[in-house]
Specification:
Blueprint lengths: L4 H29 L11 E2 L2 E2 H7 L4 E2 L2 E2 L1 H20 L3 H32 L5 H27 L6 H33 L3 H5 L6 H9 L14 E2 L6 E7 L4 H16 L4 E7 L17 H14 L8 H8 L9 H10 L4 H8 L2 H16 L7 E4 L2 E2 L7 H16 L1 H10 L1
Parallel strand pairs: 6-7
Antiparallel strand pairs: 1-2, 3-4, 5-7, 6-8, 8-9
């Protein structure tokens, strides 16, 4: 038995949307639950930042401790199950009941997506692109469900009721459970069989160290004196020196700082990071024309506070806590800055007095002059061992592998063995 020819077209289109949703939700499950296996940022990267992976690392990707991608996968699988039942059903009244259940499910999914979309667009620093694609799938299923309801209601002879409709839909939910388990089992099995990617996921292959360093040393060489700079993290005598020019309200600077934190954990004791400042506002930066009364003060206050952190020995904790304020609706407000200072173990009145001092302004202007000397025009701008990386957030894999190459050059296989022992 099959659906009438007039119903087959919308059902077929609906199945395409549902199957696309299964594939995309499956990728999200993979990136959020098996991140070491699903490392590709294809379809997710925005200016070098993988928003899908970043979402998976945060609590915003979970509902009651369960990754949201899993119920999302079940939603699309159940929609596919209901559409399959519709395709096979010949009775007009039963078709109408199934179409009603599909519409109810699609409406629920749409409302849920609207809530998730608010978080994706207005809370996350970099949106999750795969999540955006699922919104289109849900919208498509909703449109098809409305279309089918109009068609089946015109053709049915009696209303079989919601209870009977729900009973008809149970096999569709069963199909949804089965498909969800199959997709999850496939990802799990593939991750175990394939293992963790050795080159892209872990260390740069020794055979590629020379090539990587040649490309790195072909970058523009700059000479910025770091003597007297107190805002740094890492051992004073580290062989790898990074200078990171950033703005605390810049989303890409936030992600670059996250990458750098990962590098410090990847190669402990080998990297020293100077946290330097280039607020993107004329309130405190004479090289920037615009003045934003609201965000300009936030940018400048954040930089001044971070410069004062070493006086109380609360850097780098304060630096990272200020960046985290990007996730707060109030941003770097005075009250939030006070909370960040106290969270870092600092004394707020003392820090506030330091922020307003001429010495702090002089330190900030030194960073700005140094930025001008290297023709800095955007943030983040990162310098590694006096080589200027391309402006913007570095590609995460490239950044990791560059550190691998620099460490391998100095320490050889011993460093890689030490890394393996830690892992």
């Amino acid at each position: 038995m099959t659906a009438t020819s007039s119903n087959q077209k919308p059902i077929g289109i609906g199945l395409v949307f549902a199957l696309a949703g299964i594939v995309i939700a499956g990728l999200l499950v993979c990136k959020h639950i098996f991140p070491e296996y699903c490392q590709s940022s294809y379809g997710c990267a925005i200016d070098g930042v993988d928003g899908c992976a970043d979402l998976g690392k945060s609590e915003k990707s979970k509902l009651f401790g369960i990754p949201i991608a899993i119920p999302g996968l079940f939603f699309y699988a159940t929609c596919a199950g209901l559409l399959f039942l519709l395709l096979r059903e010949v009775d007009r009244d039963r078709q109408a009941g199934l179409a009603t259940m599909l519409l109810a499910l699609a409406v629920f999914g749409t409302v849920f997506d609207l809530i998730l979309a608010y978080t994706n667009f207005f809370v996350l620093v970099v949106p999750c692109r795969l999540c955006i694609y699922t919104y289109f799938c849900t919208a498509g299923i909703l449109g098809i469900a409305i279309w089918l309801n109009k068609m089946t209601k015109q053709e049915k002879s009696k209303d079989i009721g919601l209870v009977e409709s729900a009973k008809l839909a149970l096999p569709g939910a069963g199909i949804g459970v089965g498909l969800t388990v199959l997709v999850f089992a496939f990802i799990f099995t593939a991750s175990k069989v394939s293992g963790k990617p050795s080159a892209s996921g872990d260390l740069l292959e020794p055979a590629k160290v020379t090539e990587t360093l040649q490309e790195f040393r072909a970058l523009t060489k700059v000479d910025l004196n770091t003597a007297g700079l107190e805002g740094y993290e890492g051992p004073a005598n580290a062989p790898i020196v990074i200078q990171d020019f950033a703005d605390f309200m810049c989303p890409h600077c936030y992600h670059a700082s996250k990458e750098i934190q990962g590098l410090l954990k990847r190669w402990p004791g080998r990297i020293k990071v100077y946290y330097r400042h280039f607020p993107l506002d004329g309130t405190c930066n004479p090289l920037v024309q615009r003045k934003d009364k609201h965000y300009g003060e936030m940018r400048c206050n954040g930089a001044q506070a971070a410069i004062c952190g070493p006086e109380q020995k609360i850097l780098p904790a304060l630096y990272h806590n200020i960046f985290e304020l990007q996730n707060d609706p109030e941003g770097i407000s005075v009250s939030n800055l006070q909370a960040a200072t106290e969270k870092s173990g600092g004394n707020w009145p003392r820090l506030l007095a330091c922020m307003q001092s001429p010495a702090t302004n002089a330190a900030l202007q030194r960073d700005i002059r140094d930025a001008q000397s290297i023709k800095l025009n955007s943030t983040p701008t990162i310098i590694v061992n006096d080589r200027l990386l391309p402006a913007g957030t570095p590609d995460e894999t490239y950044f990791k592998h560059l550190m691998d190459a620099l460490v391998y050059e100095k320490e050889g296989e011993a460093a890689y063995k030490e890394f393996g022992a830690r892992k």
